[in-house]
Amino acid sequence: MGRTRKLRGNRTHGRGKKAGRGAGLRGGRGNAGLHKHKYMSTIKFDPDHFGRHGFKRHPSLTKRKKTINIAQIEENLDELMRKGVAKKEKETIKIDLTSLGVEKLLGGGSATRKMRIIVPEATSRAESKIVEAGGSIDKQEE
Predict the structure, then answer these.
(1) What is the rounded average pLDDT of the residues 16-44?
(2) CA-based, 20 to 30 A from 124: which of 4, 48, 91, 140?
(3) Would you state the pLDDT for residue 127?
């Protein structure tokens, strides 16, 4: 004979008035009541739960530079030649990255050819890699 059978005619089955109804005994499910009956525990255990924190600058105020890696130049050299961005001058290849709108050269990858690159900015690593391959970087403002 189970508990239900025993408590027939008892109305609350030994649970009190609200314990048997949904999440009644817990004061609601999840975050229910954090601004009402659970407010003191919110203040004590999670004071930063509500509101915004920190700041984020508006996208119009931030400017990300357009960058390119050495590896990307090496990969797309044929296409750059076709477009007229890169030209062969004796043994060196002259590449004008300003015409592509590139603002900074990064040192990812390795330089295998002798290149003279025209770009406003370059990282020290990129410069050393290009110079090691026998090339040079001309820093030219846009």
Answers:
(1) 89
(2) 91
(3) 84
pTM: 0.54
pLDDT of residue 36: 95
Is 76 in the same domain as 134?
yes
CA atoms within 13 A on the CB side of 42: 14
Q: Residue written as tokens 């059978």?
A: 5
Instruction: Find the angle CA(99)-CA(105)-CA(106) to the nearest 5 degrees.
Output: 150
| DSSP state string for 59-93 | GGG--PPPEEEHHHHHHTHHHHHHHTSEEEETTEE
State the DSSP code for 101: T
Tell me the residue range of the domain where 33 lies.
Answer: 12-54
Asked whether 18 and 33 are in contact (CB, 8 A), the reply is no
In a domain, 33, yes or no: yes
